[in-house]
């Protein structure tokens, strides 16, 4: 029999020319001697070190200057301190360092209490349909990353989603929210294993207390993230519908040819952009790229996140404009179902973010620009 | 890219049914002969095509795979428009997915063309030890409701090919019958309700 069983990510198969720009050496295309490449590397390391120092100086203050922190974070947060910075940016940790420990303790205690309330009677007392839906989705969340194959991790994520769903009955659990929990989880877990690749870490070596902390911190940050975009997940998902309509208008303004091509091919934005909104582009990007992107998203603030995301989606679509304009309906849809981003690194994300920033500056403050002429 | 597709008919078929019953894997087995143990949940809709032969005619199937979760129904119902076939999938090891078949039928009645061909598909037939829905029961239910019925396994590929072949053939019969009844070929065959189901890819695109 010629059955193939593949468990690899189909995105990984496609290569992408932009991977060449992922290395430390800048300006691709211009041949460089080994020496000048080394100098480039040194310069990059230096600038990283300077940025790190700036973050450190900010975080050491008794009261963190949040505006400064947002400004710095927009350009990317160093991995070593990302967990703290994210908690600050999400408003989970207070800017005042004195009260931080107390608040963490209180919040973590509260979450553990929720867990106790829901789960102490055993699994049979839970909403079985909800348990089932979350369970089958967690089994297929980031299946290519070993960390998420671990049962302890899977159960932890399932509890987070179950408790969030129970406490937010207007939307309840919606498929895709499982994806949104993972960047927080991974970043927070990383801080307990600073020298290791968190995606391949031996979970058994991490203490139960640490895992509980990661779980509750993830719960609270996910809750805050979803607070800002809850109408993406309520009945008929009005938040997403609105975002898709705006994306369509925006593309009409910034790439009229692409817009017209989609129209003539009968491509509707909802056919591809629904997932972009529902999962904040996480399905189109490697998880590490999402994490880098969320540095900037969080720096935009919870209120600004969904607005900025709209411009990121526009920049993302326009990126493939030349290819898409040559395609017909079914090729367009299939291309957009698996965009060639598997080899993307931070540089590709940063380019995307700066393009989005540009569109937002051009159109964001003057909504009349959005009106079709 | 693919101008390779010369075809006589283009049929839109939707895959519906509860979350986790294997819709996406049925699609990938039929269109790419692949099975993916950890394919992600479908968000919104996904799409793939394959061309087959029926009675010497080339039929291109455009298959839309939908998200199974209840919350998505308000969105996905838009995708039933223009569909001439539906595979209503349940998991033979999960009774609740079979019990929900009635709700899915109602979805189709509310949102799809009344002439849509529906096939009831019991998937995961490889999991014999875990069977929860008897074949006979589904067979009777299907007969009572005017549906065709088949059991498949996207994992070991049994009956996947016949399932799609069968529904596409049925659609073809309905369409060619209607075309005969409608008299001549002027606008191409269409279903009652006036919905054109043959999309002519060679049509020039409107100029902006």
UniProtKB/TrEMBL annotation, chain A:
Alphabetized InterPro entries for the sequence: Rab-GAP-TBC_dom, Rab-GAP_TBC_sf
PROSITE patterns listed in its UniProt record: TBC_RABGAP
Keywords: GTPase activation, Phosphoprotein
Biased composition (Polar residues): 1-25
Keyword hit for Signal: no
Residue ranges of domain Rab-GAP TBC in the record: 76-301
SUPFAM superfamilies reported for this sequence: Ypt/Rab-GAP domain of gyp1p (SSF47923)
GO molecular function, one term: GTPase activator activity
Entry GO CC: Golgi apparatus
Region (Disordered): 1-37
Pfam family, one: RabGAP-TBC
PANTHER family: LD44506P (PTHR22957:SF26), TBC1 DOMAIN FAMILY MEMBER GTPASE-ACTIVATING PROTEIN (PTHR22957)
Protein name, per record: Rab-GAP TBC domain-containing protein
UniProtKB/TrEMBL annotation, chain B:
Topology class, membrane: Lipid-anchor
Protein localization: Golgi apparatus membrane
UniProt-listed Gene3D superfamilies: P-loop containing nucleotide triphosphate hydrolases
GO cellular component, one term: Golgi membrane
Record keyword Membrane present: yes
SMART domains, sorted: RAB, RAN, RAS, RHO
GO biological process: endosomal transport; exocytosis
Broad class of where this protein is predominantly found: Golgi
GO molecular function, one term: GTP binding
Keyword field: GTP-binding, Lipoprotein, Membrane, Nucleotide-binding, Prenylation
One Pfam family this sequence matches: Ras
Keyword Transmembrane helix: no
InterPro entries in the record: P-loop_NTPase, Rab_GTPases_membrane_traffic, Small_GTP-bd, Small_GTPase
Highest taxon listed in the record's lineage: Eukaryota
NCBIfam families: small_GTP (TIGR00231)
Family: Belongs to the small GTPase superfamily. Rab family.
Protein name: Uncharacterized protein
Species of the source: Chytriomyces confervae
